[in-house]
Amino acid sequence: MDSYIDERTDSTWNSVKLVYILHLIGAFTGLPVFIGAILSHVKRGDGGPAANSHLERQISVFWTFVITWIVGVMTTFLLGLGLIILFFGWVWFVWQMVIGLSKASDYEPI
Length: 110
Fold this sequence. Notes:
- By secondary structure, the chain is an all-alpha fold.
- The protein is 75% helix and 0% strand.
- The longest helix has 26 residues, at 49-74.
- The termini are close together.
């Protein structure tokens, strides 16, 4: 962790934490998820390696969640399978954001 201490003053960390918060709020309300995803794409490559690892992970988790959501919606009418996919996709998304925010608060890479 000592190699990442110099990055703590990097303003990108504020963006990383903001995106995690937007994603968590958006998991319950919707729109902030997309705002957070746009911010992640815009800020990608601006910070040090640890901050960028978070931005890359946020982007990856967002697109995985979008694909899961699409599959879940498309399979909703197949014996409720889609509802199960949507539920577990949502739980996974929230879990990833909580873990990421926890590591970002300690300035650790993900």
